[in-house]
Amino acid sequence: MDAILGLNKRGIIINKRVASILGVFALILLLALGAYVRLPLPFTPVPITLQTFFVLLGGAFLGRRNAPLAVFGYLFLGGLGLPIFQGYGSGFLHIIGPTGGYLIGFIAAAFVVGSMIDLKRTRLSLAWVLFSMVLGQIVIYAFGITWLSTILRLSLHKAVLLGFVPFVPGALFKLLAASLLFTKLSSK
Predict the structure, then answer these.
(1) Other residues' Cβ atoms within 10 Å of the Cβ of residue 52
(2) What's this model's pTM, rounded to 2 decimal places?
(3) With 90 as the cut, is the pLDDT of residue 188 above it?
């Protein structure tokens, strides 16, 4: 029976296909939960959430194929009407709203982080993991700021002030936490 379930004697999943599917569903769930952990800021339409933490961590764990697939799945389910976006939002109109660039950037960031980690998966260092996640975070901000500027018709300077500057301290904390957690868990 354990062989059918893909479990070894310790109950650890050894079937890669099963592990991949479970990983994709886990990241979708974590992104939804990360959206519910939300701190709105009165001066910007972009709230603080835990989603970027999970995008970066998911990219590292799931790799360049499965992480973007999971993020796409999250956006698709939210677009269909499940209230899994920040503020219990849903629908495709939410994706094209002011925070839509960040949401689309999640897909690209998951791919970037997954690709960087996949390059050195057998000989990872904390520095490489942190570098990979910094690149992913830059991708999220590039998509988010560009979209914010476009949709709200803001200057690039104003979009940076509203969509980047207030989030730097939290982003640094999430980057370090995700890097340390991934490095610790992947070394076992």
Answers:
(1) 27
(2) 0.90
(3) no
